[in-house]
Amino acid sequence: MGSAAFFVPQSGGACDKCGFFLLEYIHYQAIIGKKKRGVFVMLNETGLVLEGGGMRGVYTAGVLEYFMEQDLYFPYIIGVSAGACNAASYISGQKGRNKTVNVDLVSDPRYISWRNYFRNRQFFGMDFIFDEVPNKLVPYDYDKFHNSQSEFVIGTTDCHTGEPVYFNREGYGQDVLQVLKASSSLPFIAPEIDYNSRKLLDGGISDPIPLKKAQQDGFQKNIVILTRNKGYQKKPSKFHFLVRRKYPAYTGLQKAMENRYRQYNQTLGYLAEEEQKGTTLVIQPSEPLEVGRMERNPAKLEHLYNQGYSDAKKQFGRIQSFIG
């Protein structure tokens, strides 16, 4: 951040002068950014909150790609499911990686296909996505991720209680991919993940837009990236009997799934209130979505990715003003 001598009083200075410089130092640390190792790190109290949404998450990937191009990073990032997965490549600073993984590879049947489902009861090839892709096909930069100063929180759902379980860097340590896998494991489509003596599934079940968690962690000012259009409201599911049949031992999960639409819509209401207060800025698709949770059409996915990039670019001045 430059020479620390600027903030330290010269020998013989008065105590009140020392206190003045100390306050200036704290103020400097809290509200402005600096260049560090060629990356602009925002040293303010703004968090970044990322919704999931399966393949709709390519919208978030486009937004984050533009952020990377502008060297815009945040001290606190929280996401669930696809939002958390896209955040991982953003934190490691790997430009273009999210597009390669989520658009270019989607035609590979090992990624997403009925073949996967009939063979392994997994529509998404979870081992392929969370092992072969990051470790062989599109190498993930673990060193840059672990050296990043950003706190990264991943939301999951406890199958027994139906409650959200969050993991920060201290909680997952070197197991970030395993926790990302848990956060992205959708009911019916992927098996539960055993981690830390818990059975875990998709984080979007219990806390689809984890804004309140960011606030609880001390970030009262947040940018939230959604993967649904403005005005969207989730409808009640008509298939609760299937949840009860598939997961008879997980009564907490059953309740969470049944209540999911209500919680999602209530969260949207809370989000709107926070926007009115000026404490939250929302980025979401500006055009009607043509991409579903399990979309396999590369052209549609690329269009949504480009839409995210374009929306971020159009709103960047507003984003900068919000950050301050």
Automatic annotation (TrEMBL):
Database matches in InterPro entries: Acyl_Trfase/lysoPLipase (IPR016035), DUF6363 (IPR045943), NTE (IPR050301), PNPLA_dom (IPR002641), YjjU-like (IPR037483)
Location of the active site: 81 (nucleophile), 202 (proton acceptor)
Record-level Gene Ontology MF annotations: peptidase activity
GO biological process, one term: proteolysis
SUPFAM superfamilies cross-referenced by the UniProt entry: FabD/lysophospholipase-like (SSF52151)
Pfam families given in the database record: DUF6363 (PF19890), Patatin (PF01734)
UniProt motif (DGA/G) ranges: 202-204
Motif (GXGXXG): 52-57
Residue ranges of the motif GXSXG: 79-83
Top-level taxonomic group: Bacteria
Record's keyword terms, sorted: Hydrolase, Lipid degradation, Lipid metabolism, Protease
PNPLA domain residues: 48-215
Protein name from the UniProt record: Serine protease
Originating species: Bacillus infantis NRRL B-14911
